Automatic annotation (TrEMBL):
Organism, scientific name: Blastomonas fulva
Full protein name: Double-GTPase 2 domain-containing protein
SUPFAM superfamilies: P-loop containing nucleoside triphosphate hydrolases (SSF52540)
The keyword Membrane is assigned to this record: yes
Family annotation (InterPro entries): DO-GTPase2, P-loop_NTPase
Domain Double-GTPase: 63-280
Amino acid sequence: MLENDRDTCEFRIRDVDAAGGRKDDDHTSPVLEAPTERPRLWGSLSLDIDDVRDLMAMRRMQLVGVLGTPAAGKTAALVSLYLLLAHGKLEGFQYADSLTLMALEEITQGARRWGPAPPDEMTARTEQTDGRSAGFLHFQMKQESGGLIDFIIPDLPGEWSDALIETKHVDRLDFLHSADVIWLFVNGMELRQPAQRMRAISRAKSLLRRLVEMMVDGMPPIKIVVTHADLGALPEKTKRNLEAIFDGVATAVDILEISSFPGEGKVPVGLGIAALISESLPQPSKRPVTWASKEPVASRFILRYANSEPRP
């Protein structure tokens, strides 16, 4: 552009070959060097589904599916679980680690401190946001046997369960297909009130029916979690009506009563939470028999010794 002499131009790149390319270019190195990647630490907030996939690819995780209508006590149970672990009061288990401490701290603030009288609600209700993915919480616990167990438990708004009942909206609940166990929460306060009892049972039945329709490839064990056990044991008739909704469900179903927070000091703190965790532990799988025998092994054993004679 400046019409300078080719041999003396100060802007000329001198390390070029006859073809006009750089002499040190082997045509194999990248144009830009890849930036150095540093290990990414977990943000301690709730995990999304991609985080859960990564964790489950690295080590064994017990994924829990959680369902229940609004105000059924789902978040309160998670808060109670965390506080019990933090104070070393979860029978049979000790706190080991968590990748979601900030998220756990956030949902437990209301249950930590209050004035002269406790608040009407110990936990803030999980709000439905525009996001379509679930927020998962991580608990690593040490069992009395010495082994470590990792639980991944979602904190879901009750509106998602309502949508499953009313509109069969299941796409954002796809993770349930990978769940090892499902906790279906039922509001125990409603079960103990005659005016609301049948509605609560009907909603639980509808939710269970939708769940069966959704899980066509097989159903994991289901734990029916009845909250507000501090109000007293369920009437036998109510319990039988609740058990009747399990008819035709091809999986193991148990009813567990919990009390996330004590009512007037009549029951222990976190009643039933430890039992819920124990009942949700992974079950050891039975090893298949490689060469199955057509006759009972015990019979062969007995006959062999019954017909044997001492050798001379």
